[in-house]
């Protein structure tokens, strides 16, 4: 399966002293980050370009990566945000009509190191047992002692949202030639508060006739409300939600100053919870993949969802703050969704836009536009 990759040594060093040696691919360099695992069977391109993976090294549990190459249509942002990639078997002869390059070349171009030929199952079991760990990944022949020194000195950041969010206000028009049935008419003006948004979230909203104004991290609530939006959307993003101090304060102001429909996903869900007086906590090893079961208490149905988060909302902290829990994780019972008892506010921890993963919960975008439609009709 591997024909053209330059043979270099690949090294993985974990903060507990574990050393794994394999082969390097992609960029010849060294990176340090939080080692996490993802259980998706497809979608490595979307995963690597998801801004929520900023600062992390991804261990893919599916054994074969690269078999359908890299396309020009599957990115979730303009670049790879993950700091490194670990896989068992690497394919350098992709078979896909949309492929324009191999994953090896792509990682080289994006200056991201990768290691293959290691036991990814062993790594996953260690993370599940010990929790996410600090990790050094190198493809440039550094020694184990050098890797240990890099690991010891590195401090993992939790405030990546400021770095990955847009720097200037951006307006995106509805996708008029791709509107979903029933989405015709006057567009909804939606203020998108960016913490590191995935491209397909924006697409899902634009296909539902939403005109989006994407605001940088920390934009004052008064500036956002001055544009008189029909709805407010809080995006996904990387890092620790409790470090998003400015964002939490402005979301709190948005809730205090208006009763505009509000929808949050992933990081947006967590920041909303904190803004309302709730708490979040770090999961032992997080939820990352396209096969996570979630129970919707409103519809009494279970759905398979796409997820990528390392933190969760504390159940007890939010139910006393005017919120009802709407979704629960079927694996560990953690909070996956909530809605306000009195205000048009709701959020989910998982990713209804998928990319990659199932589209079972796309109805949540329809719920958001339905709330905006009702609000407009009652105005």
TrEMBL record:
Active site, UniProt feature: 266 (nucleophile), 351, 353
Q: Which organism is it from?
A: Candidatus Allocopromorpha excrementipullorum
Encoding gene per record: carA
Q: Where is this region: CPSase?
A: 1-190
The lineage's top-level taxon is Bacteria
Keyword list (alphabetical) reads: Amino-acid biosynthesis, Arginine biosynthesis, ATP-binding, Glutamine amidotransferase, Ligase, Nucleotide-binding, Pyrimidine biosynthesis
Binding sites annotated in the UniProt record for L-glutamine: 52, 237, 239, 267, 270, 308, 310-311
Describe the task this protein carries out.
Answer: Small subunit of the glutamine-dependent carbamoyl phosphate synthetase (CPSase). CPSase catalyzes the formation of carbamoyl phosphate from the ammonia moiety of glutamine, carbonate, and phosphate donated by ATP, constituting the first step of 2 biosynthetic pathways, one leading to arginine and/or urea and the other to pyrimidine nucleotides. The small subunit (glutamine amidotransferase) binds and cleaves glutamine to supply the large subunit with the substrate ammonia.
User: Which SMART domains does the entry mention?
Assistant: CPSase_sm_chain
Q: GO molecular-function annotation terms? A: ATP binding; carbamoyl-phosphate synthase (glutamine-hydrolyzing) activity
Quaternary state and interactors: Composed of two chains; the small (or glutamine) chain promotes the hydrolysis of glutamine to ammonia, which is used by the large (or ammonia) chain to synthesize carbamoyl phosphate. Tetramer of heterodimers (alpha,beta)4.
Its name, as the record gives it, is Carbamoyl phosphate synthase small chain
The leader peptide range reads: none
Listed under catalytic activity are: hydrogencarbonate + L-glutamine + 2 ATP + H2O = carbamoyl phosphate + L-glutamate + 2 ADP + phosphate + 2 H(+); L-glutamine + H2O = L-glutamate + NH4(+)
* PANTHER family to which the protein is assigned, alphabetical: CARBAMOYL-PHOSPHATE SYNTHASE SMALL CHAIN, MULTIFUNCTIONAL TRYPTOPHAN BIOSYNTHESIS PROTEIN-RELATED
Could you say which EC number(s) this protein's record lists? 6.3.5.5
* CDD domains xref list: GATase1_CPSase
| Chain segments annotated as coiled-coil in the UniProt record | none
Enzyme class, UniProt record, top EC level? ligase
